[in-house]
Amino acid sequence: MKRELIPSLILTIVCILFFSGIYPVVMWCIAQAAPNKGEGFTIKDSNGKYYYENIGQKFTDDKYFWSRPSAVGYNAAGSGGSNKGPDNPDYLVQVQAAIDTFMAHNPGISKADIPSDMVTASGSGLDPHISAQGAEIQVARISKVRGLDKSKVAALVKEHIDGPMYGMGPERINVLKLNIALDNLK
């Protein structure tokens, strides 16, 4: 019995010291070398409220550019996808409902014109970006609701397009940054 008990106690003590002391200190030191010291990047809106720019926010008001749907309700404490496959009947109903809602709020747009990122959640459920096409397809609605010239809103979209990450992938737009700039548009 001693032969099994002593090594297990030693391993328990070593694990406690490592995982509750050494590992967190090492991770904290690495974070200090990261941009913004590992605190995340925040954006301040015109009302003085701070938001994390790398976490998706829920925008469903017609005067704003909409975000991607979220499988986790935009809750950063529980990142994750729906785990439903593309032929799952529940998933297909959910996507169709998103398509119907998007088309109801953006009249004159056909189903084929809607980019997939506007009706499907990202793998994390927290993606703060939409495609450039996802923003461009919403310009008519936003300019009408806000009483702005379409060309002015379209120019704002073009200004906020980020190139592909590390030279790979599609162009994208951070919805939060775009909507804050939209609120500041005169």
Question: What structural keywords apply?
Answer:
single chain, 186 residues, mainly alpha, 2 domains, three-stranded antiparallel beta sheet, two-stranded antiparallel ribbon, 6 helices, elongated
Radius of gyration: 22 Å
**Structural class by secondary-structure content:** mainly alpha
Strand order of the largest sheet: 3-5-4
Tell me roughly what share of residues is in helical segments: 40-55%
- Mean pLDDT, all residues: 90
Please explain how this structure is put together.
- The protein is mainly alpha-helical.
- It has two domains: 39 residues; 145 residues, no CATH class.
- Helices cover 44% and strands 8% of the residues.
- Helix 4 crosses helix 5.
- The termini are far apart.
- 20% of the residues are buried.
Brief characterization of the structure:
With 186 residues, the protein is mainly alpha-helical. It has six helices and five strands, in the order αββαβαααββα.
Give the SSE map.
Elements: H1 2-33, E1 42-44, E2 50-52, H2 89-105, E3 129-131, H3 132-136, H4 139-146, H5 150-159, E4 161-162, E5 172-174, H6 175-184
Antiparallel strand pairs: 1-2, 3-5, 4-5
Helix pairs in contact: 4-5
